[in-house]
Amino acid sequence: MGKAFSNELAALDDTLAWAQAQDVKVLEQFVADVAERPLIAVGSGGSSTACHLTSLLHRTRHQRPAFFTTPLDILSVPAGLHRAGAFLASASGKNKDVLAALEACIDEETPAIATLTLRAQSPLSNAAAAYGRARVFAADAPTGKDGFLATNSLVATCVLITRAYGFEISLPKSRREVVTGSFFENRHMVQVLHGGWGAPVATDLESKLNESALAAAQLADYRNFGHGRHLWLAKRAAETVVVALETPGTAAIAESTLKLFPKSIPVVRLKTPLEGPAGTIDLLLQAFHLVAHIGEVRQQDPGRPHVPEFGRKLYRLSPPRVRPTIDAPIQRKLWASPEAIDDGKAFQDGLKRFLARASRTKIGAIALDYDGTLCTKDDRFDGLRADIVAECSRLLRAGVHVGIATGRGKSVREELQKALDPKLWPSVHIGYYNGTDIGALGNNTLPKRDEPNDAALKRAQSLLSGDAWLSTTAKITPRPQQLTIEPKGATRTDALAAHVMARLAPLDGEGVRIVISSHSLDVLGPWPGKGSLVSWLRRLLGKERDVLCIGDRGAWPGNDYALLAEPMSLSVDEVSSLNDACWNLAPRGVSGPDATLLYLRALKVRRGVGTFTWKEGSAR
Asked: Cα(354)–Cα(568) distance, rounded to whole angstroms?
């Protein structure tokens, strides 16, 4: 089976050129999505190397924890996936393990996922594309399927993800050094020493040497080797070869370590002058040729091993899964809760009461967030989906008023005017700039776009405008009762918010606050926010009917936290820990406009009065 390993090495230059030329925008979007989160990179076999590199890239670029692991690890203990980003790499995108890992991520509602496959169509990319929070890179690599060992697909994956994290790669033509010496003939143990950017290459050597049965491999970083791993070398020197991976960052510790070895111990030193991920890829190419050399010495082609039948059966086994046992709405509340509630009994009771109240409430209006609720962050300037427009139109024609609570201005009015029949406009009300400027959809004089008219907000504008760092990392747009701050480039929203609040410290006690949306943060003055629109709608309806509120950021400091603290409130994404409000009833893996659509369809209207009916347990 497989391909001749020498042929795969010969194709590496073409693979490098191809990977350098690919559009990696979708992966760059993922890198931005996970800027404020820890990362879990998941892969099996050769893909583990790319995942190891990805974890280093994330730690370096975003200064956030990251680790690489296998599918079985997260399948066995999936806890924490709902707070992290996940990167899943698979050349073919069809093995059962990576598919099960993706399913686990969706079940745990991982907030940001990327899948990278080197097939334009695969089960992995198709399954990920159906999940609203996933970014999918899928392209046919020019060399097609690898042989038994990951080579061209691995290099391509490493280059693609390195570019997505914003690192440039400049490499010479693929390295073809031939390791001299015959000590691999009778030595079947390889101790691989590594550190820093060389660590992913150690992972790959362990994989290739063991998978091809060329040698057994042990891994240790240079300092961990000094904590007892050296004893193997002392006792088994006659059967061991040391491979030392050296980057500019580890050159000194490598030299200090190796000069203490007895002269009789054979050492192969693979060195790169390149730092960072470029050095990883350079060492990776050298390691490929080391594997080829060992194969030549052993007269065994690493790319064409004999795979026993039991090995094929092992590969085809289905991985075990820890299936969710708690209904999704309860699980989301437990994740948001400040206390450790083992069985969620309080939330179960709260959900029953909420659904019972919802079924009795006479709904005369819905108050909807816009970005993240009616449209996704990526599509917020591309118009509303036809199915969303159809449901809103149905409700409006049936006599239900629709309110839009948004942090944005006239762009929302213009989009709604394009999407909705003008006959429906009188029943549509917009709370611009987080509900601080409210009017009917047909009122083209709104929103007002003047400078801040409140003393505290004017001071806030002055404090922020004088901040040199802020002027280079964000765009500040003043409005009468709001300052909108949009990050430029890869600036993290959490870091931006912390900086803004520190700069506004002199206003402590004057009622100035911030709320965060999916794409910006807004500085508000001392007056009600999106809740103002709810009050507006209630005055319009009278006492007989109430307002159903729907948004995506129900946990403070999300910009819907006040809106979704209303008694009749539903989230399509983040929830608060409130027991009597802000429930996300959608099935696992369904969020944003997809969840909004389910809620709208569950609202049945008769004679201008809506009833929300939802079967408990349907979101499991």
From this structure: 8
473 close to 494: Cβ distance less than 8 angstroms = no
Total H helices, total E strands in the chain? 24, 21
Q: Which string of DSSP letters, residue by residue, matches 313-327?
A: HHHHPPPP-----S-
This prediction has a pTM of 0.93
Cα–Cα separations (whole angstroms), residue 488 to 167, 331, 491, 553:
18, 35, 6, 22
Among candidate residues 193, 161, 149, 137, the one with its CA nearest the CA of residue 53: 161
Q: Say if residue 316 is exposed, middle or buried (CB neighbours under 10 Å; 0-12, 13-18, 19+).
A: exposed
Q: What is the distance between the alpha carbons of residues 120 and 61, in angstroms, rounded to a whole number? A: 28
Strand partners, 67: 40
HSE of 40 in the Cβ direction (CA atoms, 13 Å)? 26
DSSP, collapsed to helix, strand or coil, labels residue 110 as coil
To 10 degrees, the CA torsion angle through 379, 380, 383, 389?
A: 100
Residues 6+ positions from 471 with CB-CB distance below 8 Å = 465
**How high is the pLDDT of residue 257?**
97
C-alpha–C-alpha distance, residues 246 and 224, integer Å: 16
Residue 379 to residue 29: CA distance in whole angstroms:
13
Token code pair at residue 597: 């659509």
Q: Enumerate residues 6+ apart whose C-beta is below 8 A from 227.
A: none
Output the CA torsion sign for 477, 483, 484, 490. positive
- Angle between the 152-164 and 276-298 helix axes, to the nearest 10 degrees? 170
Helix, strand, coil shares, percent, the chain, to 5 = 45, 20, 40
Planar angle of CA 363, 365, 370, nearest 5 degrees? 130
How many residues are given for the chain?
620
Q: Among candidates 272, 197, 282, which has minimal Cα distance to 12? A: 282
Cα–Cα–Cα angle for 100, 102, 105, rounded to 5 degrees: 110
pLDDT digits (tens, 9 = 90+) for 158-171: 999 999 999 999 88
- With 0-12 / 13-18 / 19 or more C-beta atoms within 10 angstroms meaning exposed / middle / buried, residue 304 is middle
Q: Which domains does the chain have, with CATH numbers?
A: 1-168 (3.40.50.10490), 180-300 (3.40.50.10490), 328-447+528-612 (3.40.50.1000), 455-526 (3.90.1070.10)
Nearest by Cα to 132 from 389, 390, 408, 372: 372
Rounded percentage of the chain residues whose pLDDT exceeds 70 = 96
E strand or H helix at 102: helix 96-107
The whole-angstrom separation of Cα 131 and Cα 111 is: 10
617: left (phi > 0), else alpha (psi -120 to 50), else beta?
left
Do β-strands 569-574 and 603-606 pair in parallel, antiparallel, or remain unpaired?
Answer: unpaired
Buried-state track 64-95, b at ≥16 Cβ within 10 A, e below 16: bebbbbbbeebbeebeebbebbbbbbbbbbeb
List the Cα angle 565/571/577 in 5-degree steps: 55
Q: What is the pLDDT of residues 115-161, one digit of tens each?
A: 999 999 999 999 999 999 999 999 999 999 998 999 999 999 999 99
CA torsion through residues 86, 87, 93, 97, sign = negative
- pLDDT tens digits for range 227-274: 999 999 989 989 999 999 999 999 999 999 999 999 889 999 999 999
